[in-house]
Design brief:
The chain is of the alpha+beta class. The chain is 41% helix and 21% strand. It contains two helices and three strands; from the N terminus they run αββαβ.
């Protein structure tokens, strides 16, 4: 992982840390799964109550994705922020 990748990951982690309390308030959690700085693809995971919630896609699309794209991190506006199909609480 290059310095740029590590820096981008650290910036995303810091931004997600600001979003996590809202997700945790509903009994879930949000975490960064992967970042591809070349393509701009970001994958986040939802765990706890959020991993099986019917509106988890809405949480990611209208919440996390919107906020990450609006950030100053330079994510391409056309790139999708996605979640893995199955998530579990990370260790």
């Amino acid at each position: 992982m290059s310095n740029t990748d590590q820096e981008r990951r650290a910036q995303l982690e810091a931004l997600l840390a600001k979003l996590r309390p809202a997700v945790q308030a509903d009994g879930g959690d949000l975490y960064l799964t992967s970042v591809d700085t070349d393509s701009g693809k970001v994958v986040v995971g939802l765990s706890g109550a959020c991993s099986s919630c019917a509106i988890s896609t809405t949480t990611v699309k209208l919440g996390v994705e919107r906020i990450l794209k609006a950030s100053s991190l330079g994510l391409p506006a056309s790139k999708e922020i996605s979640t893995p199909r199955w998530t579990s609480r990370r260790a």
